[in-house]
Write a structure and sequence with these properties.
This protein is of the alpha+beta class. The chain has 13 helices and 11 strands.
Length: 413
């Protein structure tokens, strides 16, 4: 767990529910609506590949982000869902601009959903580059696990590029019984479980040894998200003899001096329409079974540090956490070269077809991070509404309006 310094309670109020799978059995309609909503979020990511702002900061190096700020203000004014939004822009040398709107503050800690994917891949690649650990993203995971299964011939690279042939979120309704009281009944839905009886490594074995209908050969298809990401994290933890959060702390948290960057698993609670998360690490559910593809929390400054790694050759301060070669690998199109459902995607990054050099990582709550390698900049937009009522709107705003406005600021300097 990464926690350095004080975290701040978010101002929005949420229902504090501690649920179990038994409680879920009484909420069949909630489960159905949750999975349908999650699938719609994934589909929207492919399609879109109110208050006064806080006290203004002087532009850095003569950069004027007032038009960008204004676009966010207009978005909040027109929204009946979102009470706040915040963002940060960085380059290789540091932070260019930070601004908060509505009820957001700079130290607000939010759940990222799939905007967790790029940091997850960074952790896996950093472990791959650690010669003291017998772990490889290019070898079948069977070479690092004490068992074999139907999917153990797949590689970590395939898992985090969504090309393993394992059905992703599009097949979530066939993952297992959402009301199951055993790991076997949950099957691949253990990926989303925070129940005490679901243990991280045991869940991984369940995933890798139980075939889902609709599976494809490795490297033939693109199917976003789901249990393949969980299998990648479990393999890393077993190979390194560590928990997932210990790996995140060792390879990102400590060298980058992150205040808050921790993975949990909020999805079981969200299945019932609420969350006990209140902006603190302690309140984040599911830390014993962290959701690799969508379970992280952080603040603006810490995500900004991770984006800088992609722009400065892999460094946090004086310490190199990733090689340039590893960063380059994350941007190689692997999802767009398959025969079934080709979709431009690297490892953690969606690849923009409309804005060359732009890569982004959006999440189901509306958060999104991005880098523009041609201009040497990156950005992260935070959202703290977890209803998913209009989560595609912030992502569409950033892709269609905010990124071009930021690019214009940089081009004009």
């Amino acid at each position: 767990m990464v926690l350095r310094g004080r975290t701040r309670l978010i101002r929005r109020s949420f229902c504090a529910l501690i649920v179990s799978m038994l409680a879920m059995a009484n909420s069949a309609s909630a489960a159905s609506s949750f999975f349908s909503a999650l699938l719609s979020q994934v589909q929207s990511l492919r399609v879109v590949v109110q208050d006064e702002p806080s006290e203004e900061q002087p532009p850095i190096a003569g950069l004027d982000f007032s038009e960008v700020d204004g676009a966010f203000v207009s978005f909040l004014d027109a929204s009946s869902v979102f009470d706040g939004i915040s963002y940060v822009v960085v380059d290789a040398g540091g932070t260019l601009h930070t601004e908060t709107f509505g009820d957001h503050t700079e130290d607000l800690v939010v759940m990222l959903a799939s905007t967790s994917k790029v940091p997850a891949v960074m952790t896996l690649l950093a472990l791959d580059e650690d010669s003291s650990v017998s772990f490889s993203v290019d070898q079948p995971v069977s070479t690092m696990l004490p068992y074999e299964g139907v999917y153990t011939d797949r590689t970590i690279v395939q898992m985090v590029s969504n090309t393993t042939g394992m059905p992703g979120l599009s097949a979530i309704n066939s993952y297992g019984n959402p009301f199951g009281q055993t790991l076997e009944d949950l099957n691949h839905l253990c990926t989303f479980a925070a129940s005490d009886f679901v243990e991280f490594e045991a869940c991984g074995q369940q995933l890798l040894t139980n075939e889902l209908a609709g599976s494809q050969s490795a490297g033939d298809s693109f199917d976003y998200g789901g249990s393949q990401w969980q299998a990648a994290g479990v393999t890393a933890a077993i190979a390194a003899n560590a928990t997932w959060n210990q790996l995140v702390d060792e390879y990102l948290g400590a060298p980058c001096d992150l205040e808050v960057f921790t993975f949990g698993n909020p999805w079981q609670e969200l299945n019932l329409g609420g969350t006990s998360f209140n902006g603190t690490v302690e309140s984040l559910p599911g830390q014993s079974n962290p959701h690799i593809g969508g379970g992280a929390i952080t603040n603006l400054a810490d995500y900004a540090k991770l984006l800088q790694v992609h722009l400065n050759g892999g460094f946090c301060g004086d310490q190199q956490v990733l090689s340039q070669a590893a960063l380059d690998r994350m941007r190689v199109d692997r999802g767009g070269v398959v025969s079934i459902n080709p979709t431009p995607y690297g490892m953690g990054w969606w690849i923009s077809s409309d804005n060359p050099g732009v890569y982004d990582d959006p999440g189901a709550f509306g958060a999104i991070s991005f880098i523009d390698v041609e201009r040497g900049i990156g950005g992260y937009v935070a959202i703290d509404d977890y209803s998913r009522d209009d989560a595609g709107a912030p992502v569409a705003l950033v892709r269609k309006t905010i990124i071009p406005l930021i690019q214009a600021v940089i081009d004009g300097r």
